[in-house]
Each structure stands twice: as C-alpha cells, then as structure tokens.
Amino acid sequence: MYVAVKGGERAISAAHAWLEETRRGDPAVPELSVAQIEQQMPLAVDRVMAEGSCHDRFLAALAIKQAKGDLIEAAFLLRAYRTTLPRFGASEPLDTARMRLRRRISATYKDLPGGQVLGPTFDYTHRLLDFALAAEGEPRASAPEGSAPVGEAPRVTELLTREGLMQREQAGDAEPGDLTRQPLSFPAARDARLQNLARGDEGFLLALGYSTQRGYGNAHPFVGEIRLGHVTVEFTPPELGFPVELGEIGITECQMVNQFKGSRTEPAQFTRGYGLVFGHGERRAMAMALVDRALRAQELGEDITAPAQDAEFVLYHSDNIEATGFVEHLKLPHYVDFQSELENLRTIRRAAEAALPEAAE
Amino acid sequence: MTALTAGFADPVLDAQATFRAVLEAMSRPGRVQRAGAGLRPPGPLNAAAAAVLLSLADADTPLWLDAGAEAEAWLRFHCGAPVVAAAGAAAFVLATRAAPALASLAQGSEEEPQQGATLVLQVAGLEEGAGWRLTGPGIAHEHRLRVAGAPPGFVAAWAANRAAFPCGVDVVLCAGEHLAALPRTVAIAEG
Amino acid sequence: MSTMEGYNFAYLDEATKRMIRRAILKAVAIPGHQIPFGAREMPLPYGWGTGGIQVTASILGPQDTLKVIDQGSDDTTNAISIRRFFRRVAGVATTEHTAEASIIQTRHRIPERPLREDQIIVYQVPQPEPLFRLEPRRAETKRLHALADYGLMHVRLYEDIARLGHIAKAYDYPVMVNGRYLMSPSPIPAFDNPKMDRMPALQLFGAGREKRIYAIPPYTEVRSLDFEDHPFRPIRAPHACALCRSTDTYLDEVITDDAGGRIFVCSDTDFCAERQAAAAPKEAAE
Question: Domain containing C150: what range?
C-alpha cells in the first residue's frame, strides 16, 4: 500500500549538515579566516558590499565565507541582514571632489589638474598565470612609494560644466527616494534609477552597457573620469543641526561624457552618464554610467529603441537577489499545477482524437 | 506641561492585537471590536482611537487632527507622525469634534486608490444588531450597526464616497474601547 | 517578547510591520486591487514565499495557531522550512490540522475543508499581475486596472475556445473580484477557484519580489472569468483517492513504477488523513 512521503524535516537538517561539511572542505587544509578573505579577496568583498547594498567589509567577507564563495548568495546574506538594521536617516551627499584618491584617470584629457594617477589596477598587466603565487609564503616586493598628488583634483565634468559644454545636473534639497522602503514605480526618477543600478547585478549591467556600445542605443561615450579612493561620510543628527563625520568609505566613481545633439529647448552639449559604487568596482561603475545615460533617453527626447533604454525592462531585472530567487524557485515542487496541466492536455488530446476517429485507427 | 501618559504597555504585542481588531473590523464592516483597553490618552482622545493610531501611524503617515494640543503632543511623542494643517494632505485623519467632509480628504486616484485617507472618527457609541443596515464585501447578508453621535448628513456623504469607488475614504469608528470600520465598499441604509 | 536573539517578535521590525499592516487594510478596503508595498529582503529567497511570510509575520500574534502548506501538504520541504522559521522567530503554536489553525499560509492550494470566519488564509504569490503574459509593462497594466479594461484577457481566453474548444488555463485562472478588479488567484489549480467565492474567511495575498499585497474580504463575490456558452469548469483527475476514496477532492498523480503504474491520492494530506482515520474504525467493525 502506498504511503505518502514523510521525513522532510529530517532531510532538511541532514542536507544542511552536508552543506556545512562541503563548505569547510578537507579539514586537513587550514581554515580560511574572515580577515584573510577581507584582505586577500578585496574585489570579491567590494562586489558583495555593492550588490548587498551594505558597506561593511567584515560582514561581506563573512558572507563570502558562509556562501562558499558564491557571491550572489553572499550578497543575499548581507541584504537579509541589512534589512533588520534600524534606519537613522540619510547622510549628507558625498563630495567626491574631495576624495582621498588612490586612482584617478581621464580618457578625455592628456593631462589635467591633479594629474593622472594609475593606482592599483589590472590595466596593463599581462594576463599570464603567476605560478609564483602557487608557492605560498614567498615574501613579495612592496610597491615603491610615489609622491602623493599635489593640490586639488577637480572633477573633469566640473571643468566642462564651467565652460557651459556639459549639461548641468539639477540639484535638489529633497531627500532622495529609497527603493528599500518604497517600491519602484514608473516613470522612475533618476535617484531611484541610480540606486537600482548601484545595487544591480554586475554581469547584467556589463552586458547592457556593452550592448549600448554595439548599436543598441545611440551611445557615444568617453570616460571623462574614473576615480577611486576614500570619501568622508557626514550625517546631520536632527537634534544637533550640523553635520558630524561618521567615517570614511571606499568608493569608485565614473563619469562618462556623452554627445547630445540638443533639442528645441536645449543647445547641443555633453550629457553625463554617472556611476558610483561601493569599494573598488571599476567595471561596475563604468557599466552603470553607460546604462544611466541610456536610461536618460526619454528625458532627453531620444528615440527609445534598445533594451538598455527601456527603464521598466532594465530596472525590474537588474537585481540579482530577486532574479536568482525567482529563477531558482522553479525547483520547488509544482506538482499540483503540473497535475492540472496534465489533465488539461489529456482532455485536449481526447477531444482531438474523438474529432478525428479515422486518424486514431 | 504635565507628563505624558504611557502608550502601549507592550508596544509589539499591543500593536499586533489592535491591528487584528482593526483588520477584523475592516473585513466585517459593522461588527464591533475591542481595542485600547488600559490606555489612558489625554482627552478628548478615546482609548480605541488612540490604540488605532499607535498601531498604524508613524513618521511615514501625515496626520491631521482636531483633538487639541495635549492629544497632539501625546500622539507626536508616541507615534512620531508628522502633523499637517490640511486634512486633505493626511493619510490619517482624527476627528473628535465636527468631522471634516469626507470629500475634502485624500481620495486616491483611479490608478492608486490606496492613497485614499483613513478617517478615525470618534463617536459616542457603537452597538451591533440595530440601526444602519450594512451590505457589501465582508458581510454575508446584512450587518446592523447603531452609531450614536455620527456627524449630521453622514449617510448621504457616505453614499457619494462609495460611488467614487475605487477612490474614496475608509472610516474607523471609535467609541471608548470599541471600534467598527466602514471600508469604502460598504453600502449604508438607514434602519 | 522575542524568541530569537537579536530579532523582533515575528522577525520584522515594527516600522515594517506598520507599513505592511497599512497596506493590508487598504487591500481589504479595495478588494482585488494590488497595493504596492516596500517588501523587505527576507532570510528566505524571493520566489520562495517572502510575500506570504511578510503578510503572516505582520498579522501573527502569540495567540495564533499557524498551519503552512505547499502543494496541499504540510510535509513538503518549503512548507517545513517556513513553519520552522515562524516557530523560531515568533514561537507560535503550529498545527497540521486545518480545523485547528487560525492562520493558514499556503502555496498553490486551498484546503478541502471549508474555512471558517475565525480563520485567515495567506497565499504566497509569485506573480500578482493577472495580465503579465499579455502586457509585461506594469505602468501599462496599472492603467488597464484603473480603466477596468480587461479586454486583453477576454480575447486570450476566447482564442483558447476557438482553437481548442475550451479554455485551456488549468491553474492561476483569472478571477473578477467584487465585479471590479481582475485578480490572480495565485497558481492554485482552477479546481480551487470556486472555494474563493464568498468564503467566510479573510483571504490575503502577498507577493514579495513583485512587492504587492492584495486581499479578498469575507463573503465577497469571486467569479472565474468565462463565457455564457463556455462556462468555467474546474479540472481534477477523474479518479478516486487511493487512500481515502474521495471522489471530489483534488488529486496528485503518483508514479509507482516504470511500466505505466500510477495511483491518485489527495493533495490535501490533512484532509485525506482525517478521512482515513474516520473510515478506519468503521472498516475494522465490519
């Protein structure tokens, strides 16, 4: 006699124990510390902070360890933690012109105030596997000390704006929206779009940004500037009424300069695509800047012809925590619905066979 | 100024119990629920209305009220809701005296009818089984509700409110430690 | 009161609960209309019931008894996982018996035993927009709901009739609520649709990833879309349950061997077990 399946509770516990075993791997190999991940996988940590929408290197490293190196899973862990934290308010806007720079490059000028600073980059490395890294314990040569950049490093886009060639962004005093508290609605304002992109999946942003370069959307981008470094975060407690410093965070900012032919109301000028992400995330910041500019098509009166310009399409599908959950939910049992589809199909087939008796013979 | 009286004794569980009372009231229009037992809000605020606002209003919900400075200070302290001067700009409207006209409150739009206001209306008494005849969603056949001290012309104003569906205002009637609700779908016939 | 170190009762913070509670009340006041809400990331993945979980967490109190089912069964892995979650974060009593529950969270089924006035059923909803296969743009579907313009859906159903002779939608079969809003009943089999009509219990729907909440108040008209000459017909496998012999419940098909062997058993495991228990003494006496 048939007995319905039972024992799901035991199966879940056993599966989780097994997962934990595979996370640790061979116990003969020393365990990774969270500090090691934080120090030696800094770009993975940065990506998890960006997509997890929470600037905390330690927690991001812990999440990577717990997620066995699955960065989307790690970002999910961080988001689920973030959502339980109390919200005190919004910081003052970051002033990236006053960034303590580690890297700053412009593709639009040969030289400029503050200079070009190459910084810690994979650019110009030859992608040859370094087998010396496999021989652990080798002390490595430290980087030579250079002289720190002297003087101010004004933002490139600011130079163009002063000349009247770059469209001026509208400054506002209103507190920007927050997608973690108010769901997206359309048309989505730029603050909501930028927040969405800053948390978006890096692969999705990269592919969309890339598509704008290949003719899907009318992009003519120049990298005005990429800057990487640390900025001060300030917060004004209502009871004090003046800003206090909370500390510093590492960020990457990319400003793309794009052609704009002008419209009836605006002269021909450059327009900006903007990318800002937690940590060192140059690829992400650049892709974000390309997509930001593409999403401005409507407000700039450009034809909307490409996926990257379609705000609903881009913003509803950029979040990898949402996407992975829904794609993966297909592995949950669906047998009730499948059963009604089966009966449905059988009914259709019976009706078709009855209608064509000769075909059945 | 005198010290404020306390809010919920257990902010988590009292808010939950009050919400369930309001949910039950909104789901079954005309059925009277209990809320706010033990609360001692400053007058003219009654216990049920105080409990409703403590459990639902906060910094995200603009509040309009006519209950005077003491009640306003109490609600500001315990809910943190921003008090607005125009009833039409409020998510929650607390009426303890002459209620503002339903049509003057936020109605929502055809696309976003949920932006219609919730009117917390203090009345003298609520009694099941007699008075108005209520029909509509949430009601199997008919619920009777006697409301002592409803604003004059309320039933006619309500008919206009209901006719604007899906836009409109939802009402929570509060008397002492009792409440009943009128979602915008309910039809009222005078009994 | 807290049952898990560092977390609030029922996991969500109070501000989030208030936001969800306000959305639920407006949902009840506007039956079938989708209310956007600021869904939070939950410690379970989107698509795995986060909307239902947030609704349940916002209504749940210590006096409640919770039942969680997935595919009609209390013992499917995701149902177990969600029930475990609430035991952990709210310490509430749980049950597998429909009759004992004050709140029932479900994925894909409505219990066979009729629900009562003192019960609330919370549906997990993957896709709250009934028009999404016909019009993926939410800005556009929002407009269609505002206009009550549901021609797209009628055309889609009529095309089935023209091509196949009947409406071929077997689950997530669209309904009209209180004669005004077209609504997704969530992916329950069409067999369950009639149970929604004038149900004595309050029905709440939560879609976490899509960030929408909607509701059907008790005793509200819920009509499955159909045509006069092609009335709605619920589908079930035309068999009796192999365990309790019921002929009017929804059945799962279980493959018993690789030679075409199969049996049909009730999808609602609690209902089936109760029927078997009730029949057992009688049979023993015979």
Answer: 14-224
Name the domain boundary from C224, C246, C272.
Answer: C224
Per DSSP, the three-state class of C240 is coil
Q: Are residues C244 and C179 in the same domain?
A: no
3-state SS string for chain B = CCCCCCCCCCHHHHHHHHHHHHHHHHHCCCCCEECCCCCCCCCCCCHHHHHHHHHHCCCCCCEEECCHHHHHHHHHHHHCCCECCCHHHCCEEEECCCCCCHHHCCECCCCCHHHECEEEEECCEEEEEEEEEEECCCCCCCEEEEEECCCCCHHHHHHHHHHCCCCCCEEEEEECCEEEEECCCCEEECC
Domain count, chain C: 2
Q: Could you give the ipTM of this predicted complex? A: 0.97
Q: Is residue C229 part of a domain?
A: no
Contact C214, C183 (CB under 8 A): yes
Mean pLDDT of B34-60: 96
* pLDDT per position as a tens digit, A23-74: 999 999 999 999 999 999 999 999 999 999 999 999 999 999 999 999 999 9
Chain A closest-CA separation from residue C250 CA (Å): 9
**Minimum-distance CB partner of A2 among C107, C235, C256:** C256
- Token couple for C229: 């000459």
Indicate yes or no: pTM above 0.80. yes
- Tell me whether residue C1 is in a domain: no
Instruction: Verify whether residue C165 is a known catalytic residue.
Output: no
Evaluate whether residue C195 is within a structural domain.
yes
Considering the domain architecture, whether residues C111 and C179 belong to the same structural domain is answered as yes
Domains of chain B and CATH, by start: 11-189 (3.40.50.11310)
Question: Same domain for C286 and C211?
Answer: no
Residue of C7, C41, C142 to mutate when probing chain A, most A C-beta within 10 A: C41
Say if the Cβ atoms of B111 and C178 lie within 8 Å.
no
From A75, which residue of chain C is nearest by alpha-carbon distance?
C41
Whether residue C32 lies in the annotated active site: yes
To the query of whether residue C244 is one of the catalytic residues in this protein, the response is yes
Indicate the pairing of strand B118-122 with strand B170-175.
parallel
